Amino acid sequence: MIRWLDDGAINLDYHHGQLPAQVCTRCLGTRNSFYKCLQCDVVECPHCYSRNLAPEHAASHLMVQLQPSKYGIFYTEGDRVDPDCPFDVALADSFKDDDQYLLPNEQPASSHRRCINDAIVPPNAQSAYASLLTAPAPTNDASGSAAATATATGTGTGTGAAAGAYSNVPASAATPYALLSEADELSDAASAIPAAAYGTLASRSFVGVLDSAAELGGYASITKLHDEPAAFGYGAAATSTNTTTTIAAISATGYTSLADSPPLPNDDKPAADNAYGSLAKAPPVGAGAYGSLSAVVPAAAGAYGSLSNAPAADAASSTPESGSYNAQAAANQQASSYGSLTAAPHQVEPSNSSNATSSNAYGHSLSSQPIDAGNAYLPTLGTAGNLGASAYSASLAAPVATTAMAINSAIAGSSSGTGSGSVNWNELFQQVAETPATTLEAKIDKWHRLLALSERFESVATAIGKQIIAERNLPLDKQTIKPINVGGTAGGEKFLSNGVFFKVRKTDNQPTRQSANEPMREPTSQ
Amino acid sequence: MSGLYGGEALAQKAASLELKGLRSYLEFIDAENEHRLHVPLMILIDYWGYRVIATSVLPIGSGTLCYGSSDAGATVHNESPELNAIMERAARFIGMKGHVVGFTQPKLIHGPCDIEGHLGRDGKYYVLDTARLYCPESPSRFFMALRLPADAFRRSSV
Question: Which chain B residues contact residue A424 at CB under 8 A?
Answer without folding.
Answer: 57
